[in-house]
């Protein structure tokens, strides 16, 4: 993991420095404090399907990242299969993120930047988006970044890693009993 700019005082500043150092064009979007990628999208007037949600994964190998559209949910079993990860691969806890990724606010981890684990996978749905909105290290800033630049810098796998969700009303589904 790369060291951040020593003059940077926040995760946001470190991410911007990282993008500048790699010649990546971006647009900063400042918005009200939000706590989710869908909230970032709404505060930025961006379709949630065009906003990326960075998920921190953890297992015995350490940390990795997965990036999916903000309006989707990760199919972690599929990521395990795709990456050859153990059955212990899971979402990192808030405590782990706060302890091991202290440069970034919990829930605002960007997909690329200094002191970040590698991206294992980007969901294929984001490849069709020209510029996507991503968290920028804190809950007040997001960045519009070219998805092709993200793929060029991170060189992740691209695959369909989102859960298939039945959007019908649960009462309309035969044999469905809430647990």
From TrEMBL:
Pfam families: tRNA_edit (PF04073). This is Ala-tRNA(Pro) deacylase. SUPFAM superfamilies: YbaK/ProRS associated domain. Residues 36-153 form the YbaK/aminoacyl-tRNA synthetase-associated domain. It is an enzyme of class 3 (hydrolase). The keyword Hydrolase applies. It comes from Conexibacter arvalis. Keywords: Hydrolase. Its EC number is 3.1.1.-. InterPro entries: YbaK/aa-tRNA-synt-asso_dom_sf, YbaK/aa-tRNA-synth-assoc-dom. It comes from the Bacteria. Gene3D superfamilies: YbaK/aminoacyl-tRNA synthetase-associated domain. One of its GO terms (molecular function) is aminoacyl-tRNA deacylase activity.
């Amino acid at each position: 993991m790369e060291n951040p700019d020593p003059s940077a005082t926040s995760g946001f500043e470190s991410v911007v420095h990282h993008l500048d150092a790699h010649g990546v064009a971006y647009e900063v979007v400042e918005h009200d404090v939000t706590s989710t990628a869908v909230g970032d999208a709404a505060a930025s007037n961006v379709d949630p399907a065009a906003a990326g949600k960075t998920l921190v994964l953890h297992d015995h190998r350490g940390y990795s990242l997965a990036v999916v559209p903000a309006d989707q949910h990760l199919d972690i079993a599929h990521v395990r299969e795709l990456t050859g990860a153990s059955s212990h691969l899971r979402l990192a806890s808030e405590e782990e993120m706060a302890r091991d990724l202290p440069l970034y606010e919990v829930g605002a981890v960007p997909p690329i930047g200094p002191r970040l684990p590698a991206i294992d996978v980007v969901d294929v749905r984001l490849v069709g988006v020209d510029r996507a909105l991503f968290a920028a290290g804190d809950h007040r800033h997001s960045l519009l970044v070219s998805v092709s630049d993200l793929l060029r810098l991170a060189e992740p796998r691209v695959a369909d890693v989102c859960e298939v969700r039945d959007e019908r009303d649960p009462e309309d589904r035969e044999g469905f009993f809430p647990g």
